[in-house]
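Q: I'm writing up a methods section and want to include an example of the input and output format. Could you take the sequence below and give the corresponding predicted structure tokens, formatted cleanly so I can copy it straight into the document?
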Amino acid sequence: MAQCEFCGAATSLYDGGSPVCIECSNRRDAGEKLTKLTKVPRVSEPDLQREKEGLLENLRIARDRFFDAKRLATNAVDQRPEIEHADACFAMNQTIRNEMVEFKKYTEALSALAEFALRQKSSKS
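A: Here is the clean output for your methods example:
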């Protein structure tokens, strides 16, 4: 069965060669300006698999980089350089900032994977 070009409802009614449900047809006849649905092209299964693999690889890389930065920052703090020594404080500050940057990249990779999973779930229902 065809889908209404305005609301996506299942319909067997056609108007001017386009599928239109009764409700949208009545609304249009009453003078309401209706907007056609934007058709989202279907993505092939191999393309989805490649996208998923790419997202998982990005997540793995971001996770590894974050844990490396976290280990370096922990080591810098554990060594407790003398606070008066400017270079030691600067180095410790830089490792902690690097950890924060890598954490942000890690959470962005997690978010991208979650968005992909939600898109897949919504497209199947």
